[in-house]
Amino acid sequence: MTISLINKKDRRNLLLILLIFNLCLLAFLLMSSFVGEEKRHSNNLNIKKYLYHYPDHDIQELSFKKQEKITNELNFARSFIKLTHVRNTIELELLVDTLAPFLIEEIIFEDEAQVKAVYINDNKIDFETTEKGVLLNSHNNFKHKTYRQDKLSPINIKLELENKSKFSSISIKNLYNHKNISTKVVEVLQNSKEVEIIKSRTFTKGVYRFKQNLLIPKDAKVKFIGDVTFLMDESTFIESYASFTINGQLNIKPLKHSWGSLSFHFINGEMKNINIQGSKRGIGTKGYYDCALCFYESSVDLKNIRLHDNNVEDALYGVKSSMNVSKLSVSKITSDGFDCDFCELNISDSQFTQSLGDGLDISGTKFYVNNCVFDQNQDKGFSVGEMSEGLIKNSYFKRNNIAIAIKDGSKAKVTNLSYLDNKQNLVKYIKKNIYSQPEVIYE
Description:
The protein is an alpha/beta fold and 443 residues long.
């Protein structure tokens, strides 16, 4: 009987020991998982910080512009604010190019202002006055819908003031990261130039000077014969809803220091032999353009395009477009050479050199890249992000910070690539935690 009791006690003790062991094991596994997640997150953050590190550049202004880009990219948002200020009313049209969450928390003024009423998308909003602005009480009703996946859908904000005031800048604070999106009023409002509408015109060999903006409507017929040069005044833009017929060469340069941008909207056709330099952002009828040459919801064949010495976010920019590109040359850009978002991209025989950002940056894009050169790009030669998918082959990467970065659920096939003197040749990582691990297939 005594032996039986001892055995029962031993069994209880043994069960207790096993239970304690299992609990310790479970705690260890949970801790390991937590530490692994923290390490992965830390590694991602370190990679991002490393990506945005670059050596001193000879041109200080370009380096300053690079720092501005870093700030925007680490926030995972690129913002566009179109602002008008008439008497005692301020109207803001806010676009945030991001797949990360964005909610308006606060509107901040650089200067003193007394706000009487706040409207968002024509709805009157309750607010509290803060030291330098207004804190919104109903911000959760206005989560931003990114234009990348849907139709352009800005947030329209109207502020009624007690008195007429002058402002040097206005900021919008994001609830999720408590970071500010700022715009300088002087910068936004500086484009008050007249608009010339060109419905039908043939430009022959020669130099043409424009001190006004150019607007080319749908069904217009604009032709270029011979070597044609446009000299554009400060901040002027060319906005076209029709393709160009170029039998020769079109050169666009600033009349003095810089000019705005050339943008195409909803066009189909071939664009060739274009040379653009000296672009520095522009304000068009559809908003804010931070690119030298832009294509919106278009289907185009681009050939012999040269973009160099442009102080813009993207020298060439395409969004929700089908783009066949050959013999593109992009060099000395203050940020990215070519940014292609939610497109179908086929590019060959092209060069991306000396950009302070990426040579080629794609998001949500199906791509085919062949026989391209990526040289001396301070961030990445080729950046593949946001579930892009495609093939890159027969291409050469030299002296880039990172040759190729595959990110955020993207799938890339790579074959016959050459590397020389890059800090890193190929990396893959998650930049935005809403995505899964990227995949690289070597063929």
